[in-house]
Amino acid sequence: YLERRRKNNEAAKKSRDLRRLKEEHMAKKAKLLENENVMLKAQIRTLADEL
Predict the structure, then answer these.
(1) Among 12, 11, 14, which Cα is nearest to 22's?
(2) Is the pLDDT score of 13 beyond 90?
(3) In whole angstroms, what is the distance from residue 34 CA to residue 39 CA?
(4) HEC string of 22-37?
(5) What is the per-residue pLDDT across 15-47, written as a single tens digit (0 to 9) for each?
(6) Could you report how far apart the first and last alpha carbons of the chain are, in Å?
(7) Distance between CA atoms of 46 and 49, rounded to whole angstroms?
């Protein structure tokens, strides 16, 4: 029983850690995309002003 609990605890920890890493990666990617969006909007304004 104790061995089964230990293995389950390890599996649960691994699952939580992987989920946390995925969430952090998604947050970083979202921030990069937000920054890119701001730059592209500024570029659109600049090009529109040239017309």
Answers:
(1) 14
(2) yes
(3) 9
(4) HHHHHHHHHHHHHHHH
(5) 999 999 999 999 999 999 999 999 999 999 999
(6) 75
(7) 5
Residue 10's Cβ-count burial label (10 Å; 0-12, 13-18, 19+) is exposed
In the structure encoding, which two tokens stand for residue 24, read together? 């952090």
Single-letter amino acid code for the residue at 16:
R
Residue 36 CA, chain-centre distance (Å), reads 15
* CA 16 vs CA 20, 27, 29, 31: distances in Å: 6, 16, 20, 23
Angle CA(49)–CA(50)–CA(51) in degrees, nearest 5? 90
Q: Is 28 exposed, middle or buried (0-12, 13-18, 19+ CB in 10 A)?
A: exposed
